[in-house]
Amino acid sequence: MTPPQHRRWPNRGLHPDQDGSVPTVSDLRQWCARTLPDYMVPSLFVEVSAIPLTANGKADRRALPAPEDASDEVRDSYVEPQTPVQRTIAAIWQDVLGVSTVGLHDNFFELGGNSFLSIQVSSSMIDHGLTVGTRPIFENPTIFALAAYLGDAEAQDTTTSLPALRRGDSQLEPGHRQEDVAMTTTRGSASAQPATPAEFIEMNDSPGPRTAFLVHEISGSVFSYLDLAREIADTHRAVAIEAPAYGSPVSPPQHDICAIARQYSRQIIEHSPGPYTLAGYSFGGLIALEIACTLEQEGHRVSSVALIDSYLADAGIRDIVKEDLRALDAAIEARSVDRPEVEVRRAVETVVHRFQLTEGVLELRASEIDKYLRILRAHTQASLDYHPRAPRCPVRLLQATESADRFRERRAWSSYPGQLEVTSHYGDHRSVMHMPGVASVARDLAEFWTAEAR
Questions:
Q1: Based on the number of CB atoms within 10 Å of its own CB, is 180 exposed (0-12), middle (13-18) or buried (19 or more)?
Q2: Is the domain of 347 the same as that of 445?
Q3: Helix, strand or coil, per DSSP, at residue 171
Q4: Is there a single domain that holds both residue 262 and residue 144?
Q5: Which domain holds residue 250?
Q6: Is 425 a domain residue?
Q7: 280 contacts 215 by C-beta, under 8 angstroms
Q8: Helices H / strands E in the chain, number of each
């Protein structure tokens, strides 16, 4: 395993299995992903015949070969980007990922990409006249696929069966951007719809007939569902709902959970017929709860709602949420006026700490940090203003055993007007969505969803 700053990787395995087969890099990454969060999965593997040892018999890390020694192995599978669009994307990926080369079929996430880096890629591509959100990067994680999605004629000519991308009930053919597709109305209504719809992202390739709609967390992102989507693939298709403001440079964040739920409900109805299975992690649980009430009010059947370590801004923690708002306001103000850089960074770091975010936020470009803070601010205010309703369907709260006291049911759900079934799962507020904790969450959800679907 090499230091995380090295992003290039050879397309070879490390050690033959007992049957003589050699695991691929993809195999190794999947094996690591069983127990590691995505940002800790190695982006580079180097084959060695033996681990060098010091005189004391300990691993001699200084004697390990440098990552550059793997360059010949990288070349084995390297295909050079050919078209101007492909070369532009490659240059952007090299800059954002910190790699020296990116091949036509290299996978963005296997090169070390993550949710925050996808934001940087999206912004850089827009700067180069290639308008693309984070969803297309997730669904087209190679330069070849992303160029074809953007309508690169030469790239399209070389593919024979590039699948269409799903958003709601619309099939987006390669070359059509999400921004080119207008929302349709439901029930024949002629009322105007939001200019920027939420992104509906297929998170797994489940063959099962059931679909679970997973609502974004407070940042607007759906990347926290990557591990969960893999774990539930045997029983449910995972369709994640990303906030419009997260992937769009022009869409402002929404401040009202009820308004958010109405928009998402319309798109869910367009996506597929009920009954509907809903779930949300953290802030997303509040939206999922309100979506259930909205769908039921309009005559649709909802099978169940799962709230994954979600919390209401009840009396017991209301002051804590207000402190969150003050921290966000301080960070936003510090970035909008002429303040010393150290003071600005300290204000943003306070937000990162309070919201248990990764340090990747600090590496975003200035405009993206500003957008991220505005989304957090809007959604925090929305949670503070939300007065929950109770749907008729069953509701289960899956709590992380090591989460801060603010997430505990006795404090965070005292004002909930309905019945709430509570289960516990090992982990804290963030780790519960990664292996190994998320495996327990997935089993609980599969049992809950299957029972309520009967």
A1: exposed
A2: no
A3: strand
A4: no
A5: 182-312+386-453
A6: yes
A7: yes
A8: 16, 9
- Of the three residues 172, 207, 222, the one that is the final residue of a domain is 172
**pTM for the whole thing?**
0.70
Spatial CB neighbours of 241, under 8 Å, sequence gap ≥ 6 = 198, 199, 200, 201, 213, 214, 215, 216, 222, 264, 267, 268
Q: Say how far apart CA 220 and CA 310 lie, in whole Å.
A: 15
Angle between helices 318-336 and 366-385 (to 10 degrees): 150
Query: What is the torsional sign of CA 269, 270, 275, 281?
Result: negative
Chain centroid offset of residue 175 CA:
23
CA pair distance 314, 299, nearest whole angstrom: 29
Same domain, 214 and 275: yes
Confirm whether 59 is domain-assigned.
Answer: no
Residues 397 and 423: their CA atoms lie apart, in Å, by 6
Q: Look at residues 172, 207, 223 and tell me which one is the last residue of a structural domain.
A: 172
Length of the chain: 454
Q: In which element (H, E) is residue 341 found?
A: helix 341-354
Looking at the domain assignment, is residue 5 inside a domain? no
Give the other-Cβ count within 10 Å of 94's Cβ: 15
Q: If you search the block for the tokens 């070389």, which residue do you land on?
A: 158
Based on the domain organization, do 276 and 245 belong to the same domain?
yes
- Listed in sequence order, the residues at least 6 apart from 220 whose beta carbon sits closer than 8 Å to its beta carbon are 242, 243, 245, 246, 253, 375, 379
pLDDT tens for the chain, 454 residues: list them.
Answer: 333 333 333 333 344 555 556 666 666 766 676 555 554 566 567 777 788 877 666 677 667 776 554 444 444 467 889 899 999 999 999 988 888 888 888 888 778 787 778 888 888 888 888 888 777 887 888 999 899 988 876 654 443 333 333 333 333 333 333 333 322 223 233 334 444 889 898 888 888 788 999 999 999 999 889 889 989 998 899 999 999 988 776 788 999 999 999 999 999 999 999 899 999 999 999 999 999 999 999 999 999 999 999 999 876 788 889 999 999 999 999 988 777 888 888 999 999 888 888 777 777 778 888 888 999 999 999 999 999 999 999 999 999 988 765 556 566 788 899 999 999 998 888 889 988 889 999 999 999 998 866 6
Structure tokens at 8: 């290039």
